[in-house]
Amino acid sequence: MSKYTIVLLLFLFGWSANASYILIPMDEDGQKEHLKAYGITYWTLEKNAKVKWLLNYRGGSFLIPDSEEIRKECQIRGVSFEVLSDSKTEQILTDIASPSQNMEAVVLEKAPKIAVYSPKGNLPWDDAVTMVLTYAEIPYKTIYDEEVLGDELILYDWLHLHHEDFTGQYGKFYRAYRSAPWYIEEKKKSEELATKLGYNKVSEEKGAVALKIRDYVVGGGFMFAMCSATDSFDIALAAEGVDICEPMFDGDPSEPNYQNKIDDKKTFAFKDFTLERSPMVYEFSSIDMTTKRKVHKETDYFSLMDYSAKWDPIPCMLVQNHTSLVKGFMGQTTSYQREEIKSNVLIMGEHKATGEARYIHGIKGKGFFTFYGGHDPEDYQHRVGDAKTELALHPNSPGYRLILNNVLFPAAKKKKQKT
């Protein structure tokens, strides 16, 4: 054997032995900054590097090509990581690929462009999603009605709905806050915006926004919503062309017998629901379980469903966590009446004792949607004016991880789910 051949073999052997990857572990013991780990993954995708999301492997870990730049970024952000040799990486991927293992390696290809639907004056901590995006250092753009009605949604892969009221009833805050300066000011601003955009009523303008968002999802977009944005969005779709607002909201009476005029065939997730007619009740409809649930704070936990990583990678991605039991939290819309959820919608998280759904997902046209009940996963009963949640105190929050699973979902190569 020639010296040249020996040198070449030694070089190739050395390269193979030293080639390495970075594993971002996401199990309970292996990661000290779960939320910022998603930010590292997003940052890596922004650098045009592909990432493998190892579903059900150590809490849904991320596998990234090794580089000194990524190691330094992990250290700066406090994210735990492990450097793996090429052979160790091959062994892990072989184990994951085994038909006997409920695991899968999903390729994340590009950083999704993220839009948050929120009034321009809102502070980032008014909404759990903007808080966790900021904490994880994942960039986003804030858009509102003008941008949506101006067809700017096509610029984004992922849309989050703020805790908004798409029915034009100003969040049903009338009874408690109708004399509060902030309520009066917000009502005035909403009316001025509706007029500016060419609508006679806020309810009509918000209904038009809901239809644009519907079209965005049907065309292939991904929509994630929390709290009151979930049920009020579906109600607005069902009530298209029907006046369900009382005079204190829009200046004229609601339509007689409007309950029988709404069409739940137009909704994403909910069916057979009854609207709450009284403006004095802080509730939109029978969909929400907030006032009906008999659950104590100490026992308020919901369970995540278990899916096949190989056959149902989409819901499996969305439930990745270091625990299958997530601490519950309240909101204007806390959870969903199971009987009022359409049969083609997946219930990914439920409170087993009451049967209420907390976390649901579905397909609409070419796109996807996820509804997550509650306001803030680390603030059990958030109230108007409460201080922001300091996520530095909750870096491993399972409830916030569910939000970030949804953020990364559009980056994945999609396989059709079987469920």
Description of the molecule:
- 32% of the residues lie in helices and 16% in strands.
- The chain is of the alpha/beta class and 419 residues long.
- It has two domains: 3-108, UreE, C-terminal domain (Alpha-Beta Plaits); 114-411, Rossmann fold (3-Layer(aba) Sandwich), CATH 3.40.50.880.
- The protein has a nine-stranded mixed sheet with strand order 7-6-8-9-14-13-12-10-11, with helices on both faces. It has a five-stranded antiparallel sheet with strand order 4-1-3-2-5, sandwiched between helices.
- The longest helix is centred in the middle third of the chain and has 17 residues, at 202-218.
- The protein starts with a helix and ends in an 11-residue tail after the last helix.
- Keywords: Signal.
Which architecture of the largest domain would the CATH scheme give at its second level? 3-Layer(aba) Sandwich
Q: Strands of the biggest beta sheet: in what spatial order? A: 7-6-8-9-14-13-12-10-11
Query: Unreliable segments (pLDDT under 50, ≥5 consecutive)?
Result: 2-18
Fourth CATH level, the homologous superfamily of the largest domain: Class I glutamine amidotransferase (GATase) domain
- Report the top-level CATH class of the largest domain: Alpha Beta
Mean pLDDT: 92
Number of helices: 13
Count of beta strands: 14
Radius of gyration: 23 Å
Range of strand content: 15-25%
Q: Report the major sheet.
A: 9 strands, mixed
